[in-house]
Design goal:
This protein has 126 residues and is an all-alpha fold. 79% of the residues lie in helices and 0% in strands. The longest helix is centred in the last third of the chain and has 64 residues. The protein starts with 19 loop residues before the first helix and ends with a helix.
Length: 126
């Protein structure tokens, strides 16, 4: 989100937090699913239909059934791959967020320690 607001001419203190990337992440993920996953699945269905159209004139329709039989496992393998890829993507995203939260906690603890040390120094001076 920080790259999206780095080129704005008028920046306020909350500009980074108003980035549309954060607010629209669900819509972006749905768009990815519909455009990529659903598009490829529909393409595989189209290939199956084209095989039936192409091989329908043969006597036994065996070629059309074989093409369909080959595409069904490919269909399920692609669904499994897409699910695996999405789970890896979500896992990586959660690891990055967890790392950022730990880093912020460490910075908070350092600032708290620095504030406590400053309070102790100020009491010694008075």
């Amino acid at each position: 989100p920080y790259e999206a607001v780095s080129n704005l001419h008028i920046q306020g203190p909350n500009t980074v937090f108003e980035s549309p990337h954060s607010k629209m992440s669900t819509i972006i993920e749905m768009a990815w699913a519909f455009s990529t996953v659903l598009g490829i699945l529909l393409f595989l269905v189209e290939i199956c239909i084209l095989c039936w159209v192409k091989f329908y004139n043969f006597e036994s329709h065996l070629a059309a059934w074989v093409a369909t039989g080959l595409l069904i496992p490919i269909f399920f393998i692609f669904i499994a791959f897409a699910a695996h890829f999405y789970l890896k993507l979500v896992g990586h995203k959660s690891e990055v967020y967890e790392h950022n939260i730990k880093e912020l906690q460490l910075l908070k603890d350092q600032l708290d320690d620095t504030g406590d040390n400053m309070d102790a120094q100020n009491q010694n001076i008075v």
